[in-house]
């Protein structure tokens, strides 16, 4: 039996030799290489075989061909730097085969991240440099006969030159495009094809693209833009405009070479004249262009425009309509031409945002086409209902846009002159319907998701900014254009007591729903702590402790500025955030010097120092997030300096225009929040006095005497008894029902006198619902409510403040 097994293995080797001999020498080199590699799958038990050859620079191995299962399954890369080592590099340098079993590969840390881990690998050197890599599922590696077959195949492989050298050998214009920078190297033949003189070419790919016919530019951009490229070969035909104005067809063939260590990704290939080969546009090219346009169509309206652009002019149609199917109605998204006069009389009389006004079931022809889910055409003279017949008197095509077994919408194409539907045109319409249907479903989902994201973002940010005493504030928010367009940047304006206002801006790490949710929680927490009356450092410290206790994986930065609108003084607290930028009335700008603490949620017991700011009337305070001043190409210090320069040159009298101008060049790869405040100062300031109420038997009488003396100083002579009664009741209530210090505050502003009593109890006074005639207490709050215009309570740090407003019939104006 052992002899029979050995004979079987020898038979495999002989068959491999015979298979290699049968390969025709006339085959294209790449096709011959592919067929040679396929023998490894047949005779050597390999599941994947690939050939790597040295790049032109000689310091890396590049993949030139592979057969079998996808390389990603086994972690095979497209480029291997020779300096980094590895089986491929070792086989190339040493000239000896490398055989690795599954146990050998399991010791490699990178193998832990692969979908399949139990496999063996072989790397054999090639005669002309490079190596043959084979992967098998046998845990013990390739046996002796399989190794002999692989050696035989490695001898048979004539290593092809790298892709860029192959391109130079072709009789066409050569190019080498560096993807990241957009710089392109071309030869004289390439410039001749584009009609550019060598001395006029600046080395930019945009210069070549500018010669492209606009209709062909999206499909060409899908090839040369990094976001749309994948490793491998690509081919495309496109048109350029010659100096005479006539278009010319060119054919691009190229290959993307991935980036290696110190080497950027490059697209290399050739461009040849295809005018004689392709005198007209083929259906394949139309489909290619439409697929490229639909790949970048984000909304339903974008899909409609792409379909109209791909069909109307090429088919010489007179009108195209695209609509979504919602229930039993069609909701139009694109009409071309858009003028009502271009459409039938019935459409003009019932012109709506929805078309048609009647449900689909009222048009049996259209309903039947949609239910069948196949493209249908009617030549001139077909008997159709008027709503359809007048769309295309010379011919009508209805394309149900299907995806996933359901109909997402319909596309109607009409001709005024008799139109013949050739078989290839019917095939084109069917292909377009399938592509457009899938794109329409994706776009509809994107629109719905985008609307949901917008609603969530609007709900988390302030709907409008409050009117401020002595200041004007505007805010702007730009979501990132990447991902969900949902982020963690926020801003807030919080009116506080005594004409103080808190301005807050912050940024939660990340751009997803989790970051947005945490942003909403942090904004709510900061507002709650601020309204309680805590100083700025305590507000930020409480928010930090809250975020730490939430045990979130995210952190947040924040800048909190408490401005006294009466005095123009402010305190700034920073938690890992950018410092404010100040623009003074004379146009000078500076980045405010302020100490900063760590980001929120990082250190539980962190210090957040307060830094003083001075705002004179006319000063603009700018708070922003890093998305406005930082990017991959701009350092944050440079960005802040640029922001300060732009703010210096702006007109602070129109803050909205200033904010829009500052956001004009914003980096859309990150969220951006901007809050601008112009401090004007209060034209009139309230008059204030306060007094500590001692807990003595005559405390209420002392409070009344202080109030009477203060009113006399202010020149108030009316309603004094009403004020004294309210003072008596509020002070009595605080002394009886609370402990600790009690303080009386009087504020007069524009004939409104506010009486406020603060204590250290957080319990709010309760107004009794009913009081019997025999009750000895409980009437104080009822008296306060009856004698004042309004009353209420507000939390303050460590307690509360009960206030009541009395409007004086006549009194002094507030002092300027």
From TrEMBL:
Pfam families per UniProt: GAF_2 (PF13185), HATPase_c_2 (PF13581), PAS_3 (PF08447), SpoIIE (PF07228)
Record-annotated PAS domain positions: 168-225
Domain of life: Bacteria
InterPro entries for this protein: Bact_Sigma-Reg, GAF, GAF-like_dom_sf, HATPase_C_sf, HATPase_dom, PAC, PAS, PAS-assoc_C
CDD domains: HATPase_RsbW-like, PAS
Domain PAC, chain residue ranges per copy: 234-286
Name of the protein described by the UniProt record: SpoIIE family protein phosphatase
Protein species of origin: Streptomyces lannensis
